[in-house]
């Protein structure tokens, strides 16, 4: 029987005795076990394994390859705002006609005898025009025609017509449709007066012709909005008076990369307005056009369109 087993058997036999013997024997047993050769051997091996684990160098973290800096570009969405008011839709026409009838039915009678001299030409003109407005609001059968000498009625109408010509009334108004609309001239700033127009440039990229907004790179330590305005002048000339709306971009576009090792290309879009002048494309720009939102969709690439369509006005 080994020394450890004997000590363990001895401690177990004494454990059944009195309380003070149990305490003394337990201390003796724990002291003997701690100072036995087997325990010292196990402790030595444990300390050696711990020192070996602490002395070994920690594993080095794997470092990924440094990513390339993205290539930045800026583009200008140059806008020509509508130059005439939009035509009313059928719903809008019906709504305003209904409101006009309500106002005319509820308003107080106009005191024309206070503003016009009785029997004057101005009073006659006002009465004739008021009858026409009543007919337009409530229909031809609403106005009751008063008997009047036909000769005097014709004389009054002729006098009112002469007065209108003297005051410049009745002159033909400028048509809402410009000649450039009928001829299909997309370079004219007078076309599509009711719509927002945007400047598009045609150039060669990657061996093929593409339509896009004025776009260019950004130099080191250059602000993005400054780079956008500089590229606009470089590609479209200095014959336009333009205004960049904000220093903050209105959108971001990341073109699809064909080369996996090439840096990422990021294009920041800025909003601008043309106040006067016309584009004069520089060398390298094949053509330009002022187009509406629907016309832009037909000209640009599908991926490009999906990224810029929400930056354009529907009207």
Automatic annotation (TrEMBL):
Q: Which Gene3D superfamilies match?
A: Nucleoside Triphosphate Pyrophosphohydrolase (3.90.79.10)
The record's listing under SUPFAM superfamilies reads: Nudix
Keywords, alphabetical: Mitochondrion, Ribonucleoprotein, Ribosomal protein, Transit peptide
User: Which PROSITE patterns does its entry note?
Assistant: NUDIX (PS51462)
List every stretch annotated Disordered: 49-69, 166-189
Question: What subcellular locations does the record give?
Answer: Mitochondrion
Q: Which InterPro entries match?
A: NUDIX_hydrolase-like_dom_sf, NUDIX_hydrolase_dom, Ribosomal_mL46, Ribosomal_mL46_N, Ribosomal_mL46_NUDIX
GO cellular component terms, semicolon-separated: mitochondrial large ribosomal subunit
- Alphabetized GO MF terms: structural constituent of ribosome
Name the family the entry cites. Answer: Belongs to the mitochondrion-specific ribosomal protein mL46 family.
Q: Read off the PANTHER family from this record.
A: 39S RIBOSOMAL PROTEIN L46, MITOCHONDRIAL PRECURSOR-RELATED, LARGE RIBOSOMAL SUBUNIT PROTEIN ML46
This chain belongs to the protein called Large ribosomal subunit protein mL46
Q: Which organism is it from?
A: Leucocoprinus birnbaumii
């Amino acid at each position: 029987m080994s020394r450890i087993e004997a000590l363990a058997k001895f401690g177990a036999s004494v454990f059944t005795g009195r309380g003070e013997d149990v305490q003394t024997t337990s201390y003796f047993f724990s002291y003997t076990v701690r100072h036995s050769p087997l325990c010292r051997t196990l402790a030595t091996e444990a300390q050696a394994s711990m020192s070996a684990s602490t002395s070994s160098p920690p594993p080095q973290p794997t470092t990924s390859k440094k990513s390339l800096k993205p290539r930045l570009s800026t583009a200008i969405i140059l806008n020509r705002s509508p130059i005439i008011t939009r035509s009313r839709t059928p719903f809008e026409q019906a709504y305003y006609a209904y409101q006009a009838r309500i106002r005319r039915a509820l308003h107080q009678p106009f005191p024309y005898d206070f503003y016009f001299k009785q029997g004057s030409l101005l009073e006659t003109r006002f009465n004739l025009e008021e009858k026409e407005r009543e007919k337009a609001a409530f229909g031809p059968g609403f106005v009751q025609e008063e008997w009047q000498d036909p000769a005097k009625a014709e004389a009054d109408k002729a006098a009112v017509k002469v007065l209108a010509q003297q005051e410049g009334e009745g002159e033909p108004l400028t048509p809402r449709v410009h000649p450039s609309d009928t001829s299909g001239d997309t370079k004219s700033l007078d076309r599509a007066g009711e719509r927002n127009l945007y400047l598009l440039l045609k150039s060669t990229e990657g061996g093929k012709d593409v339509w896009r907004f004025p776009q260019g790179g950004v130099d080191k330590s250059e602000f993005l909005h400054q780079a956008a305005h500089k590229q606009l002048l470089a590609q479209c000339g200095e014959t336009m008076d333009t205004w960049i709306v904000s220093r903050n971009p209105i959108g971001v576009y990341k073109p699809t990369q064909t080369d996996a090792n090439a840096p990422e290309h990021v294009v920041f879009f800025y909003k601008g307005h043309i106040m006067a002048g016309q584009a004069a494309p520089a060398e390298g720009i094949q053509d330009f056009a002022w187009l509406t939102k629907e016309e832009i969709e037909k000209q640009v690439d599908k991926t490009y369109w999906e990224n810029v369509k929400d930056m354009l006005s529907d009207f």
